[in-house]
Amino acid sequence: MAIDRLLADEYPEAICELDHRNPFELLAATILSAQCTDARVNMVTPALFARFPDAASLAAAPPGELEDIIRSTGFYQSKAKNLIGMAQGLLDRFGGEVPTALDDLVTLPGVGRKTGNVVRSVAFGLPGLPVDTHVLRLSKRLGLTTLDDAVKVEAELGRYLPPSRWGEFSLRIILHGRRVCDARKPACDVCALEFLCPSSQLPRKHQRKIKNPT
Ligand code: SF4
């Protein structure tokens, strides 16, 4: 896919911007990242993981203390509930370890397909195509989908690429969404995908034709 190749040139290191040292930390950090920036989550997680380093300690966390630690990430009461429930789920059903199967991950409180796919692709190096708000927006702008439903978009994007490419593709689309293709003010004049983007805001004469952008 041309878009995948161009993004790989633009962002040679496909990185997840949530600080973590193991699958448990990534899972917890991704739950906290809902409606919150990764930078804010990264300010909170050192204290969180110092106090609750594993599923056993997090499952037994006093809710009020946990809420105080994660308060600045927003929606802290429901996130605290999900973190404790997630940790209890790990203990009760997965021997305290983070499962690798998406069907298992999505049974944990606070874990949807996006979070499950982040954990699969980033922590375990397994196929997973997280579709967040950036992936949805850019996929539409780039003409890769006309759909709004994240699950359907995940399936559609997955058909363009081999499973081994899904995770990095998602990470790079997210980086491009954050750094260039902003929701309100896309920087089309510096965008490496501009020449093939049907949503470019530059005059058409700047665009080169490409036969098959996907
Ligand atoms: S050309 Fe503009 S709208 Fe298209 S991907 Fe680039 S920044 Fe986004």
Task: Compile the SSE list and pairings.
Blueprint: H1 2-10, H2 23-32, H3 38-51, H4 55-59, H5 63-70, H6 76-94, H7 102-105, H8 113-123, H9 133-141, H10 150-160, H11 163-179
Helix pairs in contact: 2-8, 5-6, 9-11
This protein binds iron/sulfur cluster.
The site of iron/sulfur cluster (SF4) has 13 residues, from loops.
Structure description:
The chain is mainly alpha-helical and 214 residues long. It contains eleven helices and no strands. Helix 2 packs antiparallel against helix 8, helix 5 packs across helix 6 and helix 9 packs across helix 11. The chain folds into two domains: 89 residues, Endonuclease Iii, domain 2, CATH 1.10.1670.10; 101 residues, Hypothetical protein, domain 2 (Endonuclease III, domain 1), CATH 1.10.340. The model has no long low-confidence stretch (mean pLDDT 95). The site of iron/sulfur cluster (SF4) has 13 residues, from loops.
| Bulk shape | elongated
Give me the count of strands: 0
Distance between the termini: 4 Å
- The CATH architecture assignment of the largest domain turns out to be Orthogonal Bundle
Rounded mean pLDDT score? 95
Low-confidence stretches: none
Total number of distinct structural domains:
2
For the biggest sheet, the summary is: none
How many helical stretches?
11
CATH uppermost class of the largest domain: Mainly Alpha
CATH third-tier fold name of the largest domain: Endonuclease III, domain 1
Q: CATH superfamily membership of the largest domain, which one?
A: Hypothetical protein, domain 2
What proportion strand?
A: under 5%
Question: Cα-atom Rg, whole angstroms?
Answer: 19 Å
The portion of residues assigned to helices is 40-55%
- Structural class of the helix and strand makeup? mainly alpha
Small molecules bound in the structure, each named once: iron/sulfur cluster
